[in-house]
Structure formats: structure tokens, C-alpha cells
Q: What sequence folds into this?
């Protein structure tokens, strides 16, 4: 059965990429999604679109919660990451309450750095 429109085909393609992606790629996708939704939330705040900003901040928070939930707490690094994720979650909560971009910007600095570090680690791991 053929898909009825290109949008459905694209969604199917994205879903297949997620299903077949290795764990390290999934983590990168989550970081990228967080950055995407956070940027869109800031745009919605600029446009004074409160419902859209709220929805996008919630999506960003959901991804951070997923990243936090997957941590293996037997490692010290995981404890440090948990503290960062909790700080990011707090910033997003403040952004959602106040609809003030500065909180999202604070979170984005950390998220972007974490994503970039993750990408570097993936490159180094592939070289080994």
C-alpha cells in the first residue's frame, strides 16, 4: 500500500531512522530535538504565541526527562549529568512560567555544549 502523501512518507522515513539507529545516534537525535524545540519555543515567545511556546517548552522538557531517565547511576558521570539535566529542567520550568527567553537561552548553552561533546565522543569512538 502506497503512502497517500509525501508528508506521510517523510514521517515513515523518520520513524524507520529512529527504530534502526544505534543508541549513540538516538542520544544525538534527542539532543538535536531538544535544541530544535527550545529554539522554536523562543521564537513562539517572541511572537507572543503563549500556547505554542508552552507546548514547545513541554516537548523540550520531555526530551530532557527522557535523557535523565536513561542514565545509569552507577557511574559518577551519570550523577553529574543528572545534576545538569535537573538544572536544565528548572530553567525550562521557569521559562514556561514566565515566558521569558532568558531561561531557555541558559538551558540552550548547556544543551548545545552537551550535544557537541557527544558528537565529538562519537567521532573518537569510531576512530578506535
A:
Amino acid at each position: 500500500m502506497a503512502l497517500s502523501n509525501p508528508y506521510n512518507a517523510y514521517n515513515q522515513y523518520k520513524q524507520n531512522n529512529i527504530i534502526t539507529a544505534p543508541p549513540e545516534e538516538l542520544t544525538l537525535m534527542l539532543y538535536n530535538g531538544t535544541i530544535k524545540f527550545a529554539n522554536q519555543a523562543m521564537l513562539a515567545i517572541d511572537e507572543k504565541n503563549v500556547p505554542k511556546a508552552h507546548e514547545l517548552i513541554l516537548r523540550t522538557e520531555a526530551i530532557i526527562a527522557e535523557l535523565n531517565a536513561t542514565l545509569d547511576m552507577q557511574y559518577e558521570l551519570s550523577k553529574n549529568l543528572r545534576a545538569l539535566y535537573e538544572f536544565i529542567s528548572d530553567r525550562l520550568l521557569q521559562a514556561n512560567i514566565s515566558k521569558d527567553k532568558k531561561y531557555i537561552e541558559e538551558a540552550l548553552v548547556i544543551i548545545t555544549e552537551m550535544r557537541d561533546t557527544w558528537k565529538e565522543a562519537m567521532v573518537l569512538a569510531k576512530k578506535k
Remarks:
- The chain has one domain: 18-123.
